[in-house]
Amino acid sequence: MLLGILAGLTTCALWGLTFVAARVVEPFTTLDLVVGRYTTFGLICLMLMIDPRFRPSGMAPRRLVLGFLMGLLGYVGYFASVATAVKLAGPALPPLIVGTMPVILALIANRRDRALRWRALALPLLLIAGGVAVTDVALLHGADFGARRTMLLGLLASLAALAIWVAYALVNAETMRAPDAPAPLRWTGIQGLGALAGSLCLLPFASFDMPAQLPVAVTLTFVAWAVLMGAFASWLATWAWVVAARRLPLTLSAQLIVAETVFGLFYGFLFERRLPLPSEALGASLQIAGVLWAISLFLQADRRIARSLAVEAAPSRSGG
Q1: pTM summary value
Q2: Omega before residue 184 within 30° of 0, cis
């Protein structure tokens, strides 16, 4: 389990870069970075498939299609939504919106497994909702009409990213916990091919003439970030998350994603070279407190189940 937890935290640290990458590479656009990042991801997967261990061989056609679509929609769609949200609403709002995903997944898992009473989850959920509301109201209150409209568009982009993330996490967890789960390296590879297809579809809309109009240093910064995001925040992060999904139950792996919110906020404030505003700090604190509370509830429930199973097994061992 420890390896799964470390893999999940590594993924969150790398995925947190998504919340700042689009701003670092300006004046290159979000679309340019989507194309650069996922082309790199897909090419890495193709090169690794020279080794048979990385090829998605032996998978059922339905699973191949599912993995391909996860890369196409789950990665290209998610990154484009988050990057757009950050450019429209700044570094604080998108991580807080997407950061509600651990609890949403926990609720879905709890509906399926009935690990906790719903009343026990009420307070953590109120804390999370309060944190998001504090940040949203503060941002909209201090903005003029034009900025409010932009902020609302950023909110919608954040909600789109959240929906994509939830769907991706559920499908990935179900696949990796199945008795015939594919090998992590192969499952990562087929998703990379889907991401490559998505980036190639967007290639005609990228800024082909941009490098000729910019200093070489700016272009090199963009290339470096595209490679960084493709190699580490995509290939390595995907493989690590697949490992976490295979070793951890959904109720636990979902809660680890709160670390993505923490890293995303940290990277955003580091990029802007400032401390969080009081409303941002309060909103983030409430949300993190709510998610940590939810984590503790689920972990307590898991421990109770483990103790119950141990007690039931004791008579069998003594009788044998």
Answers
A1: 0.76
A2: no
